[in-house]
Each structure stands twice: as C-alpha cells, then as structure tokens.
C-alpha cells in the first residue's frame, strides 16, 4: 500500500497520514475509472455528493456518539466556540473556533497567512522557477476561466491547502484588500486525496469552485498586487457557504465586488468532507518562508505527490492565520 507522509510545521516531525476512505478512493480512481467510466462519473457528480453528505452528516446524534467522533478525530474541544450548538456531524465539521485566542496572527502588512487548518504545498507556474508545478494540480485557464485573470497570474506562484474531514472547515483571508471580482464555476466533485490528484490530470480545476480576486494595492491592503483566492469543493462537499465576518463570526455575509476584506477574518465555510484552497500570486510578489520551502522538497520522506509527479513534493501541516510568507 502506498503511504503518504507530511511534515508537522510546529514540531518539524514527519507523520504518516491515515487518509480517510483511502482504499475506496484508490479503487475508485484506478479500477473503476479505467473500466467503468459511467460509474466513476456518477460517483464524482453533484447528485451523489449531496446524497452521501446527507446520509453521513445530517443525522442528529447522542452526546456519547458525538464524543466518540470527537475522540476519534482528535478534535480539541477547548478551542470550539459555542460547543453546545453541536448536534450532528455536520455541526461538528462546520464548527467555529475561538480563532482570536487559539490562532494568533501576525498583523504586519507584509505578512501572508494560511487560510485554513490544512496541509499545504507551494509551487510556481513559471517553468524556470525553483518550484515549477505547472499543470500538476490545476490548469490555470481552466481554473480561473476569465482571460483577464489567466493573463494576470500566468507565471505566478501559488500555495495549495488541503483540508481533511477532521479539520476546522472555515476559510480565512490570507491577505487584506478590496474584492475586484468574485464568481462561481460549476464542475465535478473529485476527491482531494493525493492518490486522486495524481490519477486525474489537474483535478482541482475540474471541480466546482469560487474564485475571488483581491486587489491588495489599496489603503490598509497587503500591497502585494492582485491575489486569487479559490475555494474548491471535493467529494462529499456539497456547498461553499460565503460567510465573511469583520468580528469573530458576527453578522456573516457574502463578500461582493468593492468590499474591503480583512486578512485573517473568516470568509467562507465548507460543508462537511474534504476540500481545498488555492492562493495564487502575481509573478515575483511573494516569498514563501524558508522552512516551508525546505520541507516541501525533502527527498527522505515518501509522498504520493513525489511518486506521481516524479519530483520531491511533501505537504506541510499549517494552521489558519499563521504566517506562511511575506511580500517581496
């Protein structure tokens, strides 16, 4: 069986990931995909995802059952905000946390932060860079769709954040600026399991997603040019709920063009399951932190990305609102 290791940034230790539903996903993306394309396409469709999500997450559970899930998923209940409101698995996976206490943030203007509790990789669309990963996780033209933004971010640098079912599923803003464009693109519901990513060419640009373009070169902005923030659904994620809040989780609302979006604040939340965030920067605007670059290119750890892409690529576990890089 193919193992998959990531690095815990906080400790620097390597950890073998126990991927959710791994046997099923690997079977679906190998045997079924190759020999029964109709069944495969049905499995990654919107209707199947919604049905599976309902049966898995919307049933009201006893407190004892919820406690067992919390224990199994190793969820820290001390950081949960309004824990008494959790009645179902959906409530648990869409939980709020006291991020203002439990996820401290460097508010310096030039600092870029992680949008999610997740496992991240960094790459570049520039083939001459030190981290070229063009067309591995996504095709830029397919991902962004609009020619204006395709041209703006060609040869840019990016970070990908993979959220697993056990993690906090709110997305927070990695930079500050004014929303210049925001739009939703329909698509499939491919799994974000690394096995699926290497089996399907650029799957993240084939999934349903919300694209937000942020102009950071504005007063109180991060001054790092335009930034594309893309929220991508995955298998069993039926919806991306836009829920920007200026203070804690108060008065949530969808961002619209012209709104100022503050770094570190919650922007949206995924329905339960696995999902992915992508942040793309213009060429030559961002410098990712040295430890992230070092761990992501380690050759001593087994990663399915390394095996599938033929070059060393290891994920790093990060937490929402922690520093991941800075403006050049």
Judged by helices, strands and strand pairing, the structural class is alpha+beta
Q: How many beta-strand runs? A: 18
Coarse shape: globular
Mean pLDDT: 85
How far apart the termini lie comes to 42 Å
Give me the number of helical elements. Answer: 11
Low confidence ranges: 26-45
- What is the N-to-C order of secondary-structure elements (H for helix, E for strand)? EEHHHHEHEHEEHHEEEHEEEEEEEHHEE
User: Mind summarizing the main beta sheet?
Assistant: 10 strands, mixed
Q: Within the largest sheet, what's the order of strands? A: 2-1-17-6-7-15-11-10-9-13
Share in β-strands? 25-35%
| Radius of gyration over all CA atoms, rounded | 19 Å
Helix content: 25-40%
**Tally of structural domains:** 1
Quick rundown:
25% of the residues lie in helices and 25% in strands. With 328 residues, the chain is α+β, with helices and mostly antiparallel strands.
Question: Which descriptors would you attach to this protein?
Answer:
single chain, alpha+beta, three-stranded antiparallel sheet, 18 strands, 11 helices, ten-stranded mixed sheet, 328 residues
Write the SSE topology.
Blueprint: E1 5-8, E2 14-16, H1 22-35, H2 37-43, H3 46-57, H4 63-72, E3 80-81, H5 89-93, E4 96-97, H6 99-102, E5 111-113, E6 118-124, H7 140-144, H8 147-153, E7 157-163, E8 170-172, E9 177-185, H9 194-199, E10 209-215, E11 226-232, E12 240-242, E13 260-261, E14 266-270, E15 275-281, E16 286-288, H10 290-296, H11 304-309, E17 315-318, E18 323-327
Parallel strand pairs: 1-17
Antiparallel strand pairs: 1-2, 3-4, 5-18, 6-7, 6-17, 7-15, 8-14, 9-10, 9-13, 10-11, 11-15, 12-14, 16-18
């Amino acid at each position: 069986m193919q193992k998959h290791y990531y690095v815990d940034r906080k400790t620097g230790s390597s950890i073998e990931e126990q991927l959710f539903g791994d046997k099923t996903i690997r079977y679906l993306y190998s045997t079924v995909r190759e020999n029964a394309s109709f069944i495969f396409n049905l499995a990654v469709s919107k209707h199947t995802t919604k049905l599976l999500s309902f049966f898995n997450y919307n049933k009201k559970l006893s407190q004892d059952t919820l406690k067992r899930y919390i224990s199994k998923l190793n969820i820290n209940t001390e950081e949960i905000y309004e824990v008494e409101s959790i009645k179902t698995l959906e409530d648990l996976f869409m939980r709020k946390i006291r991020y203002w206490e439990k996820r401290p943030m460097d508010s310096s203007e030039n600092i870029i932060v992680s949008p999610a509790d997740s496992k991240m990789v960094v790459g570049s669309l520039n083939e001459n860079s030190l981290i070229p990963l063009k067309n591995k996780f996504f095709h830029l033209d397919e991902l962004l769709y609009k020619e204006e933004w395709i041209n703006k971010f060609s040869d840019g640098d990016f970070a990908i954040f993979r959220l697993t079912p056990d993690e906090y599923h709110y997305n927070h803003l990695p930079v500050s600026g004014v929303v210049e464009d925001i739009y939703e693109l329909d698509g499939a519901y491919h799994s974000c399991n690394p096995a699926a990513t290497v089996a399907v060419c650029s799957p993240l640009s084939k999934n349903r997603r919300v694209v937000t373009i942020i102009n950071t070169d504005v007063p109180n902005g991060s001054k790092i040019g335009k930034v594309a923030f893309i929220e991508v659904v995955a298998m069993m994620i039926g919806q991306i709920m836009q829920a920007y809040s200026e203070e804690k989780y108060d008065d949530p609302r969808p961002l619209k063009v012209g709104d100022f979006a503050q770094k570190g604040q919650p922007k949206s939340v995924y329905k339960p399951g696995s999902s992915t965030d992508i942040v793309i920067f213009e060429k030559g605007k961002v410098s990712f932190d040295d430890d992230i670059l070092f761990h992501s290119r380690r050759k001593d750890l087994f990663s399915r990305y390394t095996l599938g892409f033929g070059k060393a690529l290891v994920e790093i576990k990060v937490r929402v609102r922690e520093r991941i890089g800075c403006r050049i």
